[in-house]
Write a structure and sequence with these properties.
By secondary structure, the protein is mainly alpha-helical. Helix content is 72%, strand content 0%. Helix 3 crosses helix 8. The chain is globular, with a radius of gyration of 19 Å. The two termini are 22 Å apart.
Amino acid sequence: MSDVRRTDAVLLVVALVWGSSYLSAQTATAALPVLLVLFARYALSALTCLGVVASRSRGARRWTRAELRSGVPLGVTQAAVLLVETYGVAHTSAANAGLIISLTIVLTPLLDRGGHRGALPGSFFAATGVCVLAVGLLMSGNGFHTPRLGDLLMLGAALIRAGHVALVGRFTTGRAIRPLHLTTVQTLVGTALFLPAAAHDLPTLAHAAPATWAQLVYLALFCSVFAFLAQTWAVQRTSASRASLLLGTEPVWAVAVGIALGGEHLTALTGLGASLMVAGTYWGQAVERAHRSAPQDRRPSPHTSTDPLDKESECPRAHTTRTTT
């Protein structure tokens, strides 16, 4: 598998995992307070990351200054995304939430200026427009409502998420930053941020049912540790703009999981929306790839590490042969 296809595949798996996270988060928050769920998710993630780092650290550097400097602000922005998004969904319809958060696809290229020679062509934004329309169709089954507090919160979440993805690329591209170590810092930051607000509910967590704990473990290990690490690893090898397109397929996977596990039904509108999302994503990929490869043909060093857990060497963004919310 080429470096391009490998990176695209990783990002699609991340989108699938995040798409499935809605069902898990819904189940967990039905049994526990939102802030307690977020704290447990981050705490379990941090413990897992620390354990993996400890098992791989013999003779290796712990954390570099660059990893700490990048991990702290990225941890804050990632926590902000999850916080605002969770409360936004609680105060608006699923249709409005899905449509507004999809604006990340459009906002990310506007914020991501690294690695681009000039503005992106209009066809790229036409492709993202198709993706936004697709999300609207996917979520249209629940109807639309006039803007309210939840809508404004989801708009804020979309803006924060776009900024976060752009910052991942800006802070990590061309630097000797290991995704595992960076992810560990982010999870520790999130744990510290949510601990004070969730402290008084910790006894409730201790008495949670096994099914609830299973959802928390899934959110922590797959939707946090794996997804954060994989996203960082992939963005280092692509552009944040292209990553946003692939991660933008998340609603398609959410629909698929809802049908397979949640007993939902595929309507004509959701089927059309899924088709448009796939078409818009691949159209945008092609436009963005051509835009980046036009100035010059850059090829990654044959010594570049491909291990997502231990990236010791610098990994400049490979624009044409590497493999991109």
